Amino acid sequence: MGVHAATNPVDEPWNSHDTQVLIVAALGIAIVVVLIVWAKFHAFLALTIGALFVGIGSGIPLDKVTASYELGVGGVLGYVGILIALGAMLGKLLADSGGADIVVSTILKGRPATLPWKMALIAGIIGIPMFFEIGLVLLIPIVMLAVRRTNTPAMRLGIPALAGLSVLHGFVPPHPGPLAAIGILGANVGFTLAIGLVIAIPTVIVAGPLFGRLAARWVPIGAAGAGLAVSETTAESNKEKGIQETGAQDPTATRSPRFAWTMTTILLPLVLMLLKAASDIWLPKDTTARTVLDFIGDPVVALLLAVLLAMVTFGTSVGFSASVLATKIGQSLLPIVGVVFIVGAGGGFKQVLIDGGTGTAIAKIALAASLSALFLGWIVAVLIRLATGSATVATVTAAGIVAPLAAGLGAGQLSLVVLAIGAGSLFFSHVNDAGFWLVKEYFGLTVGQTIKTWSVMETIISVMGLGFTLLFSLFL
């Protein structure tokens, strides 16, 4: 309940406070954008400053502004932070054990004509436990090696790999964006995961292998850029060691994990969460099976079990000692600190919007204009993505804005709102997005070529994601 909210605030007439909080919210978002884009503030600081401004300007008592912000931060991080940490641990062990190499080398066998489809598949599998940037760094040498071996245009194989990583990053838990939106909106993780995977498959196909054909004609380049240098260095290093050209395995590993165990470990949390989602629909609440599946399918337990299994399949079984494993687990947490705090600050920003009455005002407008939470969430995420370049900032801010409007929705509709926001957060990556420059440098592209390929691909993913969520909303 907001500070200025009544029993049924959305049903009350428009008033001056509604106008005030909308103006303040717009100024708050503008402050966040200016601090990130112009002043180069870290997004955590920008969101915190913006949240405090909105709280004060919305009329929340001064002695309660920070309490509102802290409540939002704690509410999100108490759940989402744990999942991000566990996902990072799983991804680190997968990469350092050579498990990712095993997946790649196994799937890439066969006819060259199937390579674009296999690249999309590899990216989708590796992208489940890994953040986008880590997956990109891991996959680029593989893409470049395949381009060199087969003399295939770089975009023909690169776009499918990028599409697989990007779609998973935007749509599927345990990635930070979807998890943040799930936490803020109170959606069901398993249900969101199930629908997200259904939407992800056709989206990856269109934005990946199919668009890759067109992108390769628009930008007909071969292996180039920093990715080529990385792949050449890797190939030379592996040649000296007498090993195959895949090479992301930690040198302290004495063995490689088996493909079957690698896939089992990667897919275990998804299977457990999907089983829980299925049990919620089909099993009575008071049965033992339902209780057990609810427990092991909880995202925290599912990811924890996967990490514990990975400590064997990607740890002791490949030759890592207990001390090496402990070090790697610790190292996995370092790159995610910034992401975790951005997500937390987004939760704080959301809370002051709700407590100050902004959410109620937006809900009144959306209802008067017959705008659904789903469509409104996508539009807001698109605008913030274009302004800040950050998919995570776009996701947490948009989720906070539409949270009051989505409060009365069922589980299926809530999951669709999460996915629509995730789709909006991927719209037209350009020069203010770190991912844009990563892709440009790794593939040796000009700014114009990066826009023609990467930016257009991201837009296709975003629009298809919106289209599928709107379609599914007719049935859920």
Low-pLDDT stretches are 1-7, 230-247
Principal-axes geometry comes out as globular
Structural class: mainly alpha
Helix content: over 70%
Mean pLDDT: 85
Distance between the termini: 27 Å
- Spell the H/E element sequence: HHHHHHHHHHHHHHHHHHHHH
Number of beta strands: 0
State Rg: 23 Å
Can you count the helices?
21
This entry's quaternary arrangement is single chain
Query: Largest sheet, if any?
Result: none
Portion of residues in beta strands equals under 5%
Q: What does this protein look like?
A:
By secondary structure, the protein is mainly alpha-helical. The protein has 21 helices and no strands. It has helices at residues 16-37, 43-57, 62-97, 99-107, 115-126, 132-150, 154-171, 176-185, 189-218, 225-241, 259-282, 288-296, 299-313, 322-333, 337-356, 358-368, 373-388, 391-406, 411-424, 434-443, 447-473. Helix 9 runs parallel beside helix 19 (411-424). The longest helix is centred in the first third of the chain and has 36 residues, at 62-97. The radius of gyration is 23 Å and the shape is globular. The two termini are 27 Å apart. Mean pLDDT is 85; it is low at 1-7 and 230-247.
SSE topology sketch:
Elements: H1 16-37, H2 43-57, H3 62-97, H4 99-107, H5 115-126, H6 132-150, H7 154-171, H8 176-185, H9 189-218, H10 225-241, H11 259-282, H12 288-296, H13 299-313, H14 322-333, H15 337-356, H16 358-368, H17 373-388, H18 391-406, H19 411-424, H20 434-443, H21 447-473
